[in-house]
Design goal:
Layout lengths: L15 H38 L6
InterPro entries: DUF6752
Protein name: DUF6752 domain-containing protein
Keywords: Coiled coil
C-alpha cells in the first residue's frame, strides 16, 4: 500500500474540513501500514525460529 501524499496546494485555502478529512485518511493509511508491518515482523520471527529449530547443520 502506498500512502497518499498530502497536497496542500490542492486543498483550497479556508477549507479546513477538506484538510481534516485528508489528515484523517492519511492517519488511517498509516494505521493500516503499521498493522501490516507488525504482521510481517511476526511472520519473520516465526520463520526465523522455525529455521533455527529445523536446521540440519545444528550441532
Amino acid at each position: 500500500m502506498k500512502v497518499n501524499k498530502l497536497d496542500l496546494d490542492a486543498i483550497e485555502a479556508g477549507s479546513s474540513a477538506d484538510l481534516v478529512l485528508k489528515v484523517a485518511e492519511l492517519e488511517r493509511q498509516i494505521f493500516e501500514l503499521r498493522q501490516e508491518n507488525r504482521r510481517v515482523a511476526e511472520l519473520y520471527d516465526l520463520v526465523f525460529a522455525r529455521l533455527q529449530e529445523d536446521n540440519p547443520l545444528k550441532a
